[in-house]
Every structure is written in C-alpha cells, then in structure tokens.
Amino acid sequence: MKQMTYGSTRFLVADAIGTALLELVTAIERGRHADLVAFPAFTEQGRPCEVQLTLHGRSELVAMSTESGAGLDEETSEATSIAVEDIRSRIARHALAVHRPGLEEDDEETAVHGLGLLEA
User: Fold this and answer.
1) Bridge partners, 11 (sequence order)
2) Cα separation, 38 vs 50, whole angstroms
3) SS3 58
4) How far, in Å, CA of 91 to CA of 100, rounded?
5) How far apart, in Å, are the Cα atoms of 49 and each of 6, 65, 106, 111, 115?
6) Residue 50 falls within a domain, yes or no?
C-alpha cells in the first residue's frame, strides 16, 4: 500500500495506483493540461472510499510505502485494475501531446497530425 498526500488530505491506495498517479503527474506537461482522475482508496482508518483528484504538472502528490492497510489491496483488486488501466491510458494520451513553442493552439493540432502521431 501507498499512503498518498495531496494538499492536506491523506489516503491509502494500492501500490499500482500510487505508482500510476505519480507517473501521470510526470507525464502531464507542466501548466498545459489538467486531468480529473477517480480511483478506489481507503481512508487512514481503513474505510473504503473513492478519491477524485484534479492533477496537473505542478501537482504536489506525495507517495509513501506503508504497511498500514496491508491486505486492503485484495478487497478492490478489480476496481484497482480498472483504475490503473484508466490512469495508464491518460499517461499514454499525454505522451502523444506534442507542444511546440511558438505555435498557436490551432497550429498545435496541425503539428501533431503532421508528425503522424494522431490519426486524422
């Protein structure tokens, strides 16, 4: 399990979700995009909950491995798999977003299509 801290809020998530969330923040280009993600988690007291976060490239998300909540992963294994798949698809989408300095927003789409990264 990972204890995540976002702002002043703490919650526990499966290791795979914690790792994927950190990778998503890294993948989001600083200040250019934001993403709303939802995933299963546990309160610090071990009660199941759903967390919704708006993440961007400057999000301060802290993950700390913990023994607290050990065994809770199994309770939400299917939901965890779905959440990780969703987060990983967002990471892939951000990896495709190519930003060229000096291009206007309208030109940016043309530049990405021109690189063959997106299908028309």
Assistant:
1) 4
2) 7
3) coil
4) 19
5) 15, 19, 40, 41, 42
6) yes
Using the 8-state DSSP alphabet, how is residue 29 labeled? Answer: P
pTM, to two decimals:
0.71
CB count within 10 Å of CB 69 equals 21
d(Cα 111, Cα 118) in Å, to the nearest integer? 10
Total domain count for the chain? Answer: 1
Rounded Cα–Cα distance for residues 49 and 76 (Å): 11
Model confidence over 85-98: pLDDT tens digits? 999 999 888 877 65
Question: Tokens 């009660």 belong to which residue?
Answer: 47
Whole-angstrom CA distances from 3 to 12, 31, 63, 68 are 5, 25, 6, 8
Domain boundaries, position 28: 2-114
Rounded Cα distance between 76 and 56, Å, is 26
- Confidence (pLDDT) at 93: 85
